[in-house]
């Protein structure tokens, strides 16, 4: 065996036939799962797959994994969960059957979803709470601690504690905010914006402190994928012809330059930080996947470019040994890192 | 342009007959499947799992340009639909009777993700032959919708006399000389006249008489929408034209509802076709000038408070 790392890992990829545009990739414990645009979820690796019909012909719009379950929302206005055995459960249903625009979940099993301005939170016991965002809720994210939700919308983001009577708190910033994420330590809220930029807020440690704003701009396209490093020190983002990684140590990225890794002549569409190392899996619009080491910028090829097969989903398993990916044309695959 | 999903925007003042047209499009046996984005669920009598409700959310782009507005809900819905590519042939967007068509049209030029995957095929406006004259007086939205249209369906013609119909059509023509106009009752017309028009292939500009708007210099109120059309019998100089049109649309963009044109550029065998919505301009070299075609350059502007003489002078100064 050669002791140096191989330049290419492509021989360690097992193909998976998903057959439809992959919305999300997830690990349900040790079982890979792919949420597909035609409304189904594929559970299991190649040769041992089952297709679970979840949302009917209207299709599946949003999916997120947490605590060993995949939570999905569809054009049928239903929110469902799927476990590693392919067992499907309907958790909630929009009264008017509207599209589920966004979805978020906690490892404990709480889930939140939005239909237009209506945001519904369902705690792990099944208790439902609703609130109305100032405009359509485009993105949702739970804070890591406490049962608190971030709602991204036009002209800002709203913080909401579903199970308390505390009024919602508005984080105002002009423009249309799309997706939301919260740093693992809960100090930073970051949204992606229609104007090809990110906006961040540093939440006050004490109620008397002021909210600090962070503007992260310069992207040629919208950021639709972000991923925190395991220690929360870095935020990797899509939307440029490289992975843009912002430093979040200390007070955040203001006044600091972001890192760039994996510069190519194609836009990055998906990013996934390794769960235990400073390694980022980057998926590109041309179908290529690279593994990038943050410390020295070194690159490993996991998938060469494939025409029409842009990367739409990436997910590491918990030990960080396997990377599941899905593509716009229904191809998918499983990379297992050599021991 | 190929591979992009065509999008038809259906506008029209309250009660003009939009829903009738939509039901007709969806129920006729044309073998095509449409995804329909509606503002009010339940009005459509057709069972179709590709009918989506929209909220008509208008976003101001945070780029310092006041008329750069887009429809946030459309961006999201089209993004969702594009993941189901192959299950439908085209998209129809129905707007409310009071909607301004500009943000809808601008979405296809301003949002990169939408623009890469879908193209605006035509803005189709349904107008009520009996009530349009009154609406044009009291409802600025109705006026906008007529001025903006690529295709106008003058509906409910059975409710007016032939003379009234001619009068209302003449009124439409002062606002919008370039749109294709169809007279109908109950929106009965071949679907092909409405959908997949490629209305942004602007050949009609060359068919209309440029001086036709000159006649009857009647009184204009300051806020009146008017249309103007100019022709240079020959080529224009792109090095003069491009800076001129860019400055014009930057400075007067908020007042220019639509502009379009077909130009013969000096030393260029292909026709240059441009169109704009407020400050947004989109232009392309298209097919060759045919040998039996005269190389002429035509431009049409539709807007409010436009200084006809200044625009005319500016355009003529770009002649090669």
Key terms:
heterodimer, A: about 350 residues, mainly beta, Methylamine Dehydrogenase, Chain H, six-stranded antiparallel β-sheet, four-stranded antiparallel β-sheet, globular, disordered N terminus, B: about 325 residues, alpha/beta, Rossmann fold, Hypothetical Protein Yjia, Chain: A,domain 2, 2 domains, seven-stranded parallel β-sheet, five-stranded antiparallel β-sheet, 14 strands
Describe the structure.
The complex is a heterodimer of chains A (339) and B (320). Chain A is an all-beta fold and 339 residues long. Chain A has a domain at 220-339: Methylamine Dehydrogenase, Chain H, CATH 2.130.10. Helix content of chain A is 0%, strand content 50%. Chain A is built from no helices and 30 strands. Chain A is globular and about 55 Å long. Chain B is α/β, with parallel strands linked by helices and 320 residues long. Chain B has 2 domains: 5-193, 3-Layer(aba) Sandwich (Rossmann fold); 204-316, 2-Layer Sandwich (Hypothetical Protein Yjia, Chain: A,domain 2), CATH 3.30.1220.10. Helix content of chain B is 30%, strand content 28%. Chain B has 10 helices and 14 strands. Chain B has helices spanning 18-27, 72-82, 101-110, 112-117, 132-138, 140-148, 162-175, 204-207, 238-252, 308-316, and strands spanning 5-12, 34-38, 51-53, 58-60, 69-71, 90-94, 118-128, 151-155, 180-183, 225-232, 256-264, 270-277, 280-288, 297-304. The longest helix of chain B is centred in the last third of the chain and has 15 residues, at 238-252. The radius of gyration of chain B is 19 Å and the shape is globular. Chain B starts with a strand and ends with a helix. The chains are: A mainly beta (339), B alpha/beta (320).
């Amino acid at each position: 065996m050669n002791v140096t790392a191989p330049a290419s890992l492509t021989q360690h990829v097992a193909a998976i036939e998903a057959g439809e545009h992959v919305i999300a990739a997830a690990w349900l414990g040790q079982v890979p799962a792919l949420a597909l645009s035609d409304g189904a979820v594929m559970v299991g690796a190649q040769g041992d797959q089952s297709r679970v019909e979840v949302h009917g012909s209207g299709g599946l719009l949003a999916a997120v994994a947490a605590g060993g379950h995949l939570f999905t929302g569809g054009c049928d206005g239903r929110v469902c969960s799927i476990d590693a055995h392919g067992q499907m459960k309907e958790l909630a249903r929009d009264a008017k059957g509207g599209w589920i625009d966004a979805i978020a979940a906690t490892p404990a099993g709480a889930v939140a979803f939005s239909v237009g301005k209506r945001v519904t939170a369902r705690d792990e016991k099944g208790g439902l709470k609703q609130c109305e965002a100032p405009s359509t809720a485009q993105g949702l994210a739970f804070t890591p601690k406490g049962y608190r939700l971030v709602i991204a919308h036009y002209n800002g983001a709203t913080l909401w504690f579903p199970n308390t009577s505390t009024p919602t708190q508005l984080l105002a910033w002009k423009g249309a905010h799309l997706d939301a994420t919260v740093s693992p330590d809960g100090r930073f809220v970051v949204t992606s914006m229609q104007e090809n930029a990110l906006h961040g807020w540093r939440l006050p440690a004490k109620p008397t402190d002021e909210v600090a704003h962070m503007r992260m701009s310069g992207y040629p396209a919208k950021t639709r994928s972000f991923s925190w490093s395991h220690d929360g020190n870095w935020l990797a983002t899509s939307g440029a012809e490289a992975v843009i990684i912002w430093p979040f140590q200390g007070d955040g990225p203001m006044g600091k330059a972001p890192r760039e890794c994996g510069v190519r002549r194609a836009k990055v569409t998906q990013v996934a930080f390794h769960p235990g190392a400073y390694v980022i899996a980057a998926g590109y619009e041309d179908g290529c996947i690279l593994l990038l080491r943050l410390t020295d910028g070194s690159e490993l090829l996991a998938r060469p470019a494939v025409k029409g097969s842009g990367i739409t989903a990436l997910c590491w398993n918990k030990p960080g040994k396997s990377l599941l990916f899905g593509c716009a044309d229904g191809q998918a695959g499983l990379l297992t890192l050599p021991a | 342009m190929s591979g992009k999903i065509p999008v038809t925007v259906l506008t029209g003042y309250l009660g003009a007959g939009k829903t009738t047209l939509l039901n007709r499009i969806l129920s006729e046996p044309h073998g095509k499947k449409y995804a329909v984005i509606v503002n009010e669920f339940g009005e459509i009598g057709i069972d179709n799992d590709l009918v989506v409700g929209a909220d008509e959310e208008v976003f101001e782009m945070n780029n310092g340009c006041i008329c750069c507005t887009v429809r946030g809900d459309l961006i999201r819905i089209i993004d969702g639909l594009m993941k189901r590519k192959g299950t439908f042939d085209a998209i129809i967007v129905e707007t409310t009777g009071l909607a301004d068509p500009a943000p809808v049209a601008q979405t296809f030029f301003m949002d990169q993700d939408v623009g890469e995957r879908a193209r605006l095929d035509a803005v189709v406006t349904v107008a009520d032959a009996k009530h349009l004259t009154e609406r044009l007086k009291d409802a600025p939205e109705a006026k906008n919708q007529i001025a903006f249209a690529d295709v106008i369906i003058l509906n409910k013609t059975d409710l007016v006399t032939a003379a009234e119909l001619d009068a209302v059509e003449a009124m439409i023509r002062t606002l919008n000389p370039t749109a294709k106009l169809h007279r109908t009752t109950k929106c009965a017309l071949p679907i092909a006249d409405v959908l997949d028009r490629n209305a942004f292939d602007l050949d009609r500009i060359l068919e209309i008489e440029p001086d036709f708007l000159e006649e009857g210099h009647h009184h204009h109120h300051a806020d009146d929408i008017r249309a103007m059309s100019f022709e240079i019998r020959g080529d224009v100089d792109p090095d003069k034209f491009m800076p001129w049109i860019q400055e014009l649309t930057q400075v007067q963009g908020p007042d220019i509802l639509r502009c379009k044109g077909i130009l013969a550029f000096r030393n260029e065998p292909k026709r240059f076709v441009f169109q704009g919505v407020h400050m947004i301009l989109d232009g392309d070299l298209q097919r060759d000038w045919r040998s039996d075609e005269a190389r002429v350059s035509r431009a049409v502007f539709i807007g409010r408070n436009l200084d006809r003489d200044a625009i005319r002078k500016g355009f003529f100064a770009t002649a090669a």
